[in-house]
Amino acid sequence: MNEEDLYEKLSERILTKGSKFIPDLFRMVADEDEARIMLATPGTAEELAERLGYTVEDMEEKLDVLYRKGLVFKSDKPQGTLYRMGRDITQFHDATILWDGVTREYLDLWKRQTREELPDYINMVSMVVPKPFTRVVPVDQPVEARQSILAYEDVEQMVRDAGRLAVAKCTCRMVDGACGKPLEVCLQLGKGADYAIDRGSGREVSAEEAMEIIRMAEEAGLIHVAMNKAYGSHIICNCCEDCCVAFGLPISASAIVDPSRFLAVVDGDSCSGCGTCVDRCFFEAIAMEERDGEELSVIAAEKCMGCGLCQVACPEDAISMKVVREEDFIPNF
Question: Are residues 198 and 142 in the same domain?
Answer without folding.
Answer: yes
